[in-house]
Amino acid sequence: MNTANVIEVCQQLTDEGKQPSVALIKPRLAQPLPMPTIIAGLKSFKANPKQKVPTNITGNESSATPLTLEQRVAQLESEVTELKSLIAKLQASSAE
Predict the structure, then answer these.
(1) Total tally of structural domains belonging to the chain
(2) Distance (Å, rounded) from C-alpha 9 to C-alpha 6?
(3) Left, alpha or beta for 45 (phi > 0: left; psi -120 to 50: alpha)?
(4) pLDDT by residue for the chain (96 residues), tens digit each?
(5) Does residue 4 contact residue 38 with C-beta atoms inside 8 Å?
(6) CA 79 to CA 84: how far, in whole Å?
(7) Which of 9, 44, 47, 67 is the most exposed place for a label (fewest CB within 10 A)?
C-alpha cells in the first residue's frame, strides 16, 4: 500500500489553504489508487500533518525512504480503524 502519494497530495492541498478530502485527493493522484489506500493516507495525514514523505515518489515503496516508527504506527492505526469500520458494516449487513 502506497499512502505516501496521498500524504503528499494532502500536504499540497494544505499548502493551498484547502482541507484535504477524498474528493480533492483522488483527481490529483498521478496514478489511480484504491479507495481504502486513499482513506488510509488521509487518516495518516490527519494523525500527523507534519510528517515527511519522499519528494520523488515512483510508486515503488521499496525504493522510498523508510517511514519512521511513529509514521508506521500512525499508518497502521488508521488501517486498523478502517478495517474495524468495514467489519462493522459487513456484520450489520449480514444481520439484516
Answers:
(1) 1
(2) 5
(3) alpha
(4) 578 889 999 999 999 999 999 999 999 998 888 999 999 999 989 998 888 775 554 444 444 566 688 888 888 888 898 889 889 989 998 887
(5) no
(6) 9
(7) 47
